Amino acid sequence: MLQISRTLAIPDAELVERFLRADGPGGQHVNRTESAVELRFDVALSPSLPDDVRERLLTRRDRRLTDDGVLVIQGRRFRDQGRNRDDVRERLAEIIRGALVPPKKRVATRPTRASKERRLAGKQQRSRIKQGRGKPGAHE
């Protein structure tokens, strides 16, 4: 059971773990052990997730999310399979915790007169700098 918050938990049956050989340090031992972990969680079909959380997760622009709505997280940070397993589970929990809080609505604001004047003054200054770069007498 992966505990996300006090009210939300994901059963282990919904998590699919696959172990693979990791690259990186480890000497000859790295060629024989499957210490990297690939965790798959089907966001689209998960009965554990509330609908609003599922919608927020599916609308995220995350390259780890497949077209079928499966979140794939790979862990090969550590040389130990158990630590990599804990790492990917914690990363999944953080992603879901981020989707628990609804985003704040953006309040449209207008730029102040002073900020418009500062912007225009900066543009004029930049224009004068660029005009000074030409050949002498060319811009007169």
Shape: flat
Instruction: Count the domains.
Output: 1
Structural class by secondary-structure content = alpha+beta
Order of secondary-structure elements: EEEEHEHH
Strand order in the largest sheet:
3-4-5
How many helix segments? 3
The number of E-state strands comes to 5
The appropriate CATH architecture is: 2-Layer Sandwich
Strand content: 15-25%
Calculate the mean pLDDT score and round it: 88
Stretches where pLDDT falls below 50 for ≥5 residues? none
Helix content: 25-40%
List its salient traits.
140 residues; alpha+beta; Double Stranded RNA Binding Domain; 3-stranded antiparallel beta sheet; two-stranded antiparallel ribbon; flat; peptidyl-tRNA hydrolase activity; EC 3.1.1.29; Aminoacyl-tRNA hydrolase; hydrolase
What does the model show?
This protein is α+β, with helices and mostly antiparallel strands and 140 residues long. Helices cover 34% and strands 16% of the residues. The chain has a 3-stranded antiparallel beta sheet, with helices on one face. Strands 1-2 form a two-stranded antiparallel ribbon. A hairpin with a 5-residue loop joins strand 1 and strand 2 (9-10). Helix 1 crosses helix 2. The radius of gyration is 26 Å and the shape is flat. Its EC number is 3.1.1.29.
Helix and strand arrangement:
Layout lengths: L1 E2 L5 E2 L4 E6 L15 E7 L8 H9 L10 E6 L5 H20 L12 H19 L9
Antiparallel strand pairs: 1-2, 3-4, 4-5
Helix pairs in contact: 1-2
